[in-house]
Amino acid sequence: MNDDRDAPTVRDVSDWWSTAISRVEPDVIELRGHPIQELIGSTSFVAVIWLLLRGQLPTPGQERLLEAALVSSVDHGPHAPSIAVARIAATCGIGLNNAVASAVNTLGDVHGGAGEQCLHLLGEVATRAGAGESVESAASSVVGRWRARSRYLPGYGHRFHTVDPRREPLLRRVQEAVDDGVVTGAYLRAAEAVEGELARGRSRPVPINVDGCTAVVYGELGFAPPLARGLFVLSRSVGILAHAWEETGQGRRNKGPMPPSIPPTFLS
């Protein structure tokens, strides 16, 4: 059987893995065109994250704002499912990388996805406000539509905190970035309008939480919604690693979700 198709060339194979992120050849490592030896010692880890995702180095203001968001999400204690899984996995005879991977794999739509979802919500409000509608009217319409689909509104309220302690410092830094001309404030205004809409007619407000605050940051900085989840995963991986490492030093084996002395309720 004859095959008239051209045989694959070396260029075909090279193009199969074409990338603008890194160039690695003998004695050469470049990230987005920047030699690694020039980045080491002169560029922060946060700035390199921006460089790899966005293609250029951030301004100092952009770097500060991204760093604040990443720091805010590193850990929320063993009651967070991802942290609990990391600690349980670490007692099962696997390596740290396996424990971290096990924990990261729990970060889905319910645990870990609220920032991405909130960024979609705030984007709808900001887009309508940018088209001439008042931000309050836009927030009312968008919140109503989202609540028709689900009682839960991503990025607002918290099961532990009356007011999330990360709210004020994050939103303050966004406002400072607005004042300095680093960002426009469109997502900050949208978030505050949604917060106001949720408080309307209630004796207790429903304040924005860390997922909503980081969504504001990522929206202001121009990150696409899926990257809000990716950046959360990157941030939370720090806490996951720390908890997995601590657990390995405590000597437990096959740690379950509760002490053996407390049996689960049997439903007869």
From TrEMBL:
Keywords annotated in UniProt: Lyase, Transferase
Bias type Pro residues, positions: 257-268
Top-rank taxon: Bacteria
GO cellular component: cytosol
SUPFAM superfamilies to which the protein is assigned, alphabetical: Citrate synthase (SSF48256)
CDD domains linked to this entry: CCL_ACL-C
UniProt key word Lyase: yes
Gene3D superfamilies tied to this protein: Citrate Synthase, domain 1 (1.10.580.10)
Swiss-Prot/TrEMBL GO biological process terms: carbohydrate metabolic process; tricarboxylic acid cycle
Protein's UniProt keywords contain Transit peptide: no
InterPro entries: Citrate_synth-like_lrg_a-sub (IPR016142), Citrate_synthase (IPR002020), Citrate_synthase_sf (IPR036969)
GO MF terms, alphabetically ordered: acyltransferase activity, acyl groups converted into alkyl on transfer; lyase activity
Disordered, as annotated region: 249-268
Family statement: Belongs to the citrate synthase family.
Record PANTHER family: CITRATE SYNTHASE (PTHR11739), CITRATE SYNTHASE, PEROXISOMAL (PTHR11739:SF4)
Name of the protein this chain belongs to: Citryl-CoA lyase
